[in-house]
Amino acid sequence: DANRQISEYKFKLSKAEQDITTLEQNIGRLEGQVSRYKNAAENAEKVEDELKAEKRKLQRELRTALDKIEEMEMTNSHLMKRLEKMKANRTALLSQQ
């Protein structure tokens, strides 16, 4: 009976050691995953920061371009008015002759 119990305990010990080995392998695998996910998250944050900086730069460029367009439209409007005045003066001069 004692030998049977010893055999049973040896079997349980062997099974527990196998379980421990399996769990240690799982821990190693999970630590690797955590490391990869952590690196991926850090890279994603870096890319996000770069994209935010690029967005700010593009928004500044857009504002500058819109301001320039507005300025050019005002200049164009002013020049069109001057051209119309010049045409009117020319027409008036031609009609006087």
TrEMBL record:
Pfam families: LRRFIP. One of its GO terms (biological process) is regulation of DNA-templated transcription. InterPro entries: LRRFIP1/2. Keywords: Coiled coil, Wnt signaling pathway. Residues 6-89 form a coiled coil. It comes from the Eukaryota. Belongs to the LRRFIP family. This is Leucine-rich repeat flightless-interacting protein 2. The lineage of its organism: Eukaryota, Metazoa, Chordata, Craniata, Vertebrata. The gene is Lrrfip2_1.
